[in-house]
């Protein structure tokens, strides 16, 4: 009876498992045992042939080094966004009429390029230099990609540079729209040169120009430029403090008068036609068009009499920058540029450093 019972139990054990979970368990165990067997044989083989392991690690290291050195390290890759900004900068103190004429010529040349869909001409400012009578820009909108398959934005920029190369009256720089809106003004790079030694503007400008000349020689850099220019004609106002004190005035009284008549001063607001307008106090253009206009500006002294402001100030003709910028409390010069085609921003940063 016992032998007969064992035979029945053995028959039940050899029977194929029933149910999905039972079959899955058997298949999983079989696959796992096969994998463990292969892993064990591989470890035994590599233990007996250590040179194979060393060759594999060495090959992996060489491949990793090759990929890291050949893969572009660009933070934000440059893309064809269909918009190009052409910045036009004339010599310092150029009139708005002269800037308009050059800007119009640049715009007409750009419109002759087949890939250009339309342009917008702006006089009095550009992206690189800001606002001023010597600046202008042309915003170029390109045709859709399927209509200009043979010309991308870099080729259009090269064409613009070629067409405007004969214009000597202005510095013309073409830059692409940044890939990420709001992440910088250009698709290239921007950095700040800081004067941490307290040098004069002329010394700082010379160092910046020498640095940009050396940077432009680098094979990674297409161009690097700055709008900073210390050649703008200006007048330096000197206050005779001794005479100001004798008249019972302060330096603030004299400078406030200059601010009101020459710089303009906000006075009040008024409502008209359903809108609010600001009231600015300022001398008429004819009174501040030349240094002789100072003789018509008066300031009240301590006795109540009106004294000409020329008794307290003198003007000296100088040259200097249109504006001074600071970066982290230091006088700084902003530099804009672009790497050459095929060069990543990471490689350009290495060249800048």
Features:
single chain; 3 domains; 14 strands; 4-stranded antiparallel sheet; 353 residues; Multidrug efflux transporter AcrB TolC docking domain, DN and DC subdomains; Alpha-Beta Plaits; alpha+beta
Describe it for me?
The chain is of the alpha+beta class. The protein folds into three domains: 2-70, no CATH class; 77-186, Alpha-Beta Plaits (2-Layer Sandwich), CATH 3.30.70.1430; 232-320, Multidrug efflux transporter AcrB TolC docking domain, DN and DC subdomains. It is built from nine helices and 14 strands. The strands form five sheets. A four-stranded antiparallel beta sheet has the order 2-3-1-4, covered by helices on one side. Strands 5, 6, 13 and 14 form a four-stranded antiparallel beta sheet that branches.
Quick structural summary:
The protein contains nine helices and 14 strands.
Distance between the termini: 94 Å
Q: Rg to the nearest angstrom? A: 37 Å
CATH class of the largest domain: Alpha Beta
Structural class of the secondary elements? Answer: alpha+beta
Number of domains: 3
> Which fold name corresponds to the CATH topology of the largest domain?
Alpha-Beta Plaits
Q: Could you give me the name of the CATH homologous superfamily of the largest domain? A: Multidrug efflux transporter AcrB pore domain
Q: State which percent range the strand residues make up.
A: 25-35%
**What would the average pLDDT be, to the nearest integer?**
85
In which order are the strands of the major sheet placed?
2-3-1-4
Number of strands: 14
SSE series: HHHEHEEHEEHEEHHEEEEEEEH
């Amino acid at each position: 009876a016992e032998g007969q019972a064992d035979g029945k139990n053995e028959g039940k054990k050899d029977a194929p498992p029933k149910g999905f979970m039972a079959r899955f368990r058997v298949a999983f165990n079989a696959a796992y045992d096969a994998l463990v067997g292969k892993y064990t044989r591989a470890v035994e083989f590599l233990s007996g042939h250590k040179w194979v392991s060393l060759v594999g690690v060495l090959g992996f290291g060489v491949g990793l080094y090759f990929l890291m050195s050949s893969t572009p390290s660009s933070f934000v890759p440059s893309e064809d966004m269909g918009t190009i900004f052409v910045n036009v900068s004339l010599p310092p103190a150029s009139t708005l009429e002269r800037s308009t004429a050059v800007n119009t010529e640049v715009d007409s040349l750009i419109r002759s390029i087949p890939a250009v869909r339309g342009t917008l001409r702006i006089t009095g400012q550009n992206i690189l230099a800001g606002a001023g009578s010597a600046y202008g820009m042309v915003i170029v909108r390109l045709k859709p990609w399927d209509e200009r398959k043979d010309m991308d934005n870099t080729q259009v920029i090269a064409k613009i540079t070629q067409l405007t190369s004969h214009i000597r009256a202005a510095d013309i720089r073409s830059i692409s729209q940044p890939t990420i809106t709001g992440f910088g003004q250009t698709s290239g790079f921007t950095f700040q040169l800081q004067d941490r030694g307290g040098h004069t503007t002329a010394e700082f400008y010379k160092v910046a120009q020498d640095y940009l000349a050396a940077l432009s020689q680098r094979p990674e850099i297409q161009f690097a430029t700055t709008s900073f220019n210390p050649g703008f004609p200006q007048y330096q106002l000197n206050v005779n403090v001794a005479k100001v004190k004798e008249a019972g005035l302060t330096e603030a009284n004299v400078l406030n008068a200059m601010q009101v008549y020459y710089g303009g001063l906000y006075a009040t607001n008024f409502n008209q036609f359903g809108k609010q307008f600001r009231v600015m106090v300022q001398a008429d253009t004819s009174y501040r068009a030349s240094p002789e206009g100072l003789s018509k500006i008066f300031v009240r002294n301590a006795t109540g009499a009106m004294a000409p402001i020329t008794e307290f100030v003198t003007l000296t003709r100088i040259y200097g920058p249109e504006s001074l910028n600071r970066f982290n409390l230091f006088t700084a010069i902003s530099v804009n540029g672009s790497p050459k085609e095929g060069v990543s921003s990471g490689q350009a940063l290495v060249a800048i450093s």
